[in-house]
Amino acid sequence: MTRHFGPTKNIGTFYPPQRVLMGPGPSDTHPRVLAAMARPTLGHLDPVFTDMMEELKSLLRYAFQTSNLLTFPVSGPGSVGMEMCFVNMVNPGDKVIVCRNGVFGGRMIENVQRCGGTAVVVEDKWGAPVDPQKVEDALKQNPDAKIVAFVHAETSTGALSDARTLCEIAHRHNCLTIVDTVTSLGGSPLKVDEWKIDAIYSGSQKCLSCPPGLSPISFSERVVDLVKSRKTKVQSWFMDLNLLFGYWGSTRTYHHTAPTNALYALHESLLMLYEEGLEHSWARHQRNHEALKAGFETLGMEYLVEENSRLPQLNSVHVPQGIDEKEVRRRLLVDYSLEIGAGLGDFAGKIWRFGLMGYSSRMENVMLCLGALEAVLSDMGMKIEQGTAEAAAHQAYAAHPLPVESKKTAKAA
């Protein structure tokens, strides 16, 4: 038998189609960020590159609103940031309160178990925020718990939980906190120092307008002390903070080959966030959400999450009765080059997830989305008066003007 190795057809340079990304992530990458990635590659120990790393850390502290010295991007997606928190902070036998109100709380539970810890699960309905009273009750019933872990912005549903209150409860019971902000960083109010968050991680591909592959992360001094005093080795060599202190600290000890061009991109995206100002970015995401919501309401589409706990940058809506949700997503992608997201878990086939994150959070995207939905749903038999959704969005924009000038909430540290 003849074996064939390599391509069985002619393969040329890959040119991806131009899409408008309005799903749960990644979001559209800003042209400035794409241009930054194309700059000459430097060695990861080059003194010029290490100077850029210091700027990047400073910009990240601004984005997180923290003075934590141990604030840096992990080489890997948000899931690696998640795992870094758990493998460093959870010792075998530790009890961890984990809040699950969607897919990503479930991943936290698995991380605890893989670290040899015991997960005490606080369950909430998917689409609802974490209930602070349930967390309080769980801590009273488990006074030996060491950590409280929860998702600030649940990407699978679009629910936003009250991080400040949950952290206050955890600290009152002498627990550290681990907080997932993959979808909230840059898009919703987030204040690490003011809310006293101990360990936090995010992703580059959501509200930061950057490609996937990096996970911004920050640790308080309490976490640093915990990691340095561990009696057992961190189970992951790559994610052991004791080894990373040297590379991201002042000595620049070799640890791994950092993705230099990807870090250029994150540097540029964080610089853009600083130039815009955090409060302006939060207001922009909210304004575009209000316009999209107004259009959805004219189409009779209902939100999964109650308004007072709804993420502006991740809009989950029920699929109208009698509509083939897969066919709608296919038509939007093929006919309009517009990507939206499907539901996960129990919501598979029942909801759509519309992202308005980072560079994707723009008026032209909102209008494209509403016009395309009107056309596709009308073709599929829904009675829709053409143009009403876009008109409602325009009215919402008029009612929610942005601040005239971007105002930074703090100087880069």
UniProtKB/TrEMBL annotation:
SUPFAM superfamilies reported in the protein's UniProt record: PLP-dependent transferases
Keyword flag Signal: no
Q: Which residues carry this modification: N6-(pyridoxal phosphate)lysine?
A: K206
| Entry cofactors | pyridoxal 5'-phosphate
- Matching InterPro entries, A to Z? Aminotrans_V_dom (IPR000192), Aminotrans_V_PyrdxlP_BS (IPR020578), PyrdxlP-dep_Trfase (IPR015424), PyrdxlP-dep_Trfase_major (IPR015421), PyrdxlP-dep_Trfase_small (IPR015422), SP_NH2Trfase/AEP_transaminase (IPR024169)
Alphabetically, which GO biological process terms does the record hold?
glycine biosynthetic process, by transamination of glyoxylate
Q: Identify the keywords attached in UniProt to this record, alphabetized.
A: Aminotransferase, Pyridoxal phosphate, Transferase
Chain residues that bind substrate? R353
What is the recorded name of this protein?
Alanine-glyoxylate aminotransferase apoenzyme
Q: Which organism is it from?
A: Nitrosospira multiformis (strain ATCC 25196 / NCIMB 11849 / C 71)
